[in-house]
Specification:
The structure holds 2 protein chains of 2 kinds. Chain A is of the alpha+beta class. Chain B is an alpha+beta fold. Helices cover about 25% and strands about 40% of the residues of chain B. Chain B is built from 3 helices and 8 strands; from the N terminus they run H-H-E-E-E-E-H-E-E-E-E. Chain B is globular and about 50 Å long. Chain B starts with 5 loop residues before the first helix and ends with a strand. The chains are: A alpha+beta, B alpha+beta. The interface between A and B is large, with 38 and 38 residues.
Chain lengths: ~140, ~150
């Protein structure tokens, strides 16, 4: 039997794109915090400088998938059905970003997940995501 | 604006080179037209989201959709200087992309006001008629001279 920590570790290692953006994660009990260290390649706006909006969305989506890999040890990586990303503030390019996912509902086939990301102040999130993910292995 | 001025076309072409994340993804300029833009990302091993299927990651599609929406915004905003930020972005994933295949995206800014732009975008892998994802986004427009 694999532990939640091993489950998470294997998910993070398996996905090449997670290594591409440099995302990491820490686990405290069943609560996972995703971490995105700053990297020059993640910048989308060089004037501020700010993280690319797409990178922010991707970080939130990967946080949802990582949390699902901890909570729901399905064999396959869930498929994203839809996501809504809300941008609240610029994601500052020089700071570490953190994100936590809240599994609002995990059904037999569908999971509804909310994710929030912040940088230096937990109470000032810079982006949020709501999404649906397909858990089962059946083909669409 | 019935056609895109040549100078703007050159700016649009450069948009993918000067944005660090777009360059890191290997993003390519495809075309620009009034209120419309098209960009692509070729498949690459380090951009895979699921090693079992070798399909490009959803995050790459997200970034391509966001960036192409930004290009359509720029193509709609005219020649006045402005900056823009994404307010929200809704993405529907219709199906996984084909294995070891890149993604092309086209975006249309169908309404722009003094302060807000509304954009729709579509992404596909092989066939323009068989979409991988669609997006709907709202952008805030900051015009320093407004």
């Amino acid at each position: 039997m694999t532990t939640a920590a091993e489950q998470l570790e294997s998910f993070l290692k398996r996905v090449p794109y997670i290594r591409f953006i440099g995302m990491q994660a820490e686990l405290a009990g069943d609560e996972m915090t995703a971490i995105l260290p700053p990297k020059p390649e993640l910048i989308g706006n060089t004037f501020i400088p700010a993280l690319h909006g797409g990178v922010i969305g991707a970080f939130l989506e990967m946080t949802a998938l990582a949390q699902l890999s901890v909570a729901e040890p399905t064999r396959r990586i869930p498929k994203t059905i839809d996501v809504t990303i809300e941008y609240l503030r610029p994601g500052r390019g020089g700071l570490i970003s953190y994100a936590r996912a809240d599994l609002r509902k995990v059904g037999r086939r569908i999971a509804n997940v909310h994710v929030e990301a912040w940088q230096d102040d937990r109470d000032k999130p810079f982006a949020a995501l709501r999404g649906h993910f397909l858990l089962s292995n059946d083909h669409r | 604006m019935s056609e895109v001025p040549e100078v703007f076309r050159q700016i649009a072409e450069r948009m993918v080179e000067v944005t660090p994340q777009a360059a890191a993804l290997g993003m390519r300029f495809v075309s620009v037209a009034p209120a419309r833009g098209s960009l692509s990302v070729p498949w690459r091993e380090d951009l895979v989201g699921d090693p079992d299927t070798q399909v490009i990651a959803g995050g790459v599609v997200t970034t391509l959709l966001d960036h192409t929406c930004g290009l359509a915004m720029a193509a709609a905003a005219g020649t006045e200087p402005f900056s823009t930020a994404t307010l929200d972005l809704r993405i529907d994933y219709m199906r996984p992309a084909a294995a070891r295949t890149g993604i092309t995206c086209e975006a249309h800014c169908y309404k722009i006001t003094r302060s807000i732009g509304f954009v729709r975008a579509e992404a596909w892998d092989v066939d323009r008629a068989d979409l991988v994802a669609t997006a709907q986004a709202a952008f805030i427009l900051n015009r320093p001279n407004a």
